[in-house]
Amino acid sequence: MGWPPCCDKSNVKRGPWTAEEDAKILAYVARHGTGNWTLVPKKAGLNRCGKSCRLRWTNYLRPDLKHDTFTPQEEEIIINVHKAIGSRWSLIARQLPGRTDNDVKNYWNTKLRKKLSKMGIDPLTHKPFSQMLSDYGNISSFANVGNSFGRNINTLMSKPESSLVVNEFRNINEMILKPKPELFQDNLRFANNNPSWDFQVSNQETIQPYFSTVVTSSCSSSSSSTIAQLSSSNSSSGQPFQSQAARPASPPSPFSWSEFLIYDPHMSMEHQQHLELEPQGMLSSTNSTLTQHEQENSGAYNKCADVSSSSTISFVDAILSKDSEMNSQYFALLNGSFD
DNA sequence: AACTGAGCCAACCGCCGAGAC
DNA sequence: AGTCTCGGCGGTTGGCTCAGT
Fold first, then answer.
1. CATH code at A74?
2. pLDDT value, residue A235
3. Which residue in A10, A216, A228, A338 has a CA-CA distance of 20 to 30 Å to A245?
4. How many Å does it take to go from CA A16 to C1' B1?
5. Residue A4 within any structural domain of the chain
6. How many domains does chain A have?
7. What is the pLDDT of residues A156-174, one digit of tens each?
8. Nearest residue to nucleotide B13 when comparing alpha carbons to its C1'?
9. Do the beta carbons of residue A77 and residue A244 sit within 8 Å?
10. Nucleotides, chain B, CB distance < 7 Å
11. What's this model's pTM, rounded to 2 decimal places?
12. Among A95, A118, A141, which residue terminates a domain?
């Protein structure tokens, strides 16, 4: 099935727009305004698909568009909103006056993604690679878990966050094949220097910011705000999304990361229950600057800390210790069967 | 000077939801 | 309720530019 084409593609011009075509669009919009783009080509005397005309207007010809390079402030906004809502470019672009979703998407794909990777941050999950390595420690028993793998992977894949798992695998592979130990220190600095707050997405257009350190018993459905509302409530001066601005306390994430913990046959049931009951464990007291989100993800940290079996060992040491352990196991895992 | 590969970005593609009929 | 159209969206592609060899 699928929709019929919006125009006869064999008879319309494609490719780069000429100045003359741009002028026709501009003249048409100046006279008639935007809307009903399917009629625009005919009325404006263009041999183009209406959809193509709309795209040309929204992405390039609109008078309010900025065509200069992104500022550091805009970069920060993109990174923070992307961290909160992922690759929903149109929503991100709404926080940046004069920028289109295409602009933001291109900038992300060409600049910011690499920049974050160089900083040791996974651009998809916004987690430091070191944390993902620890998470990898949680799932390193995939090859041995038998039926429990199926049970847990079903749980994982039924969650919207499941794509993160897949992507972590890819990035973990990159990390282990090209390990850069110095990045672990950068990751910690990044985690400590960045605002410890997070969002939850309760529906397609609704996002809730909240202090990561505030934990209440209320549920997510009570109050919600759009990003636009967030922007305006964030600052009385109508500033767009500002990560450093004061943020209201609001409910914690409704899901528990313990649901995502993979059953580890090498760990006692008691220990696992302990992790599920107390997911923050040692880190909650030793690294209070981590975000709640990070701490909720810290079942892996707990395990990492357990490797040391000492409350005095530093977090970095624990990470490095776990890293070297995983490095030694990685190639054996590659050779193993996932069947 | 010629070639090659990476980076960049405008444009396209296909899917989806909303709303009109 | 079902169908159709339109506009919006995110992912992908094609072609241009430029630095490196």
1. 1.10.10.60
2. 35
3. A216
4. 30
5. no
6. 3
7. 333 333 333 333 333 333 3
8. A5
9. no
10. 7-17
11. 0.52
12. A118
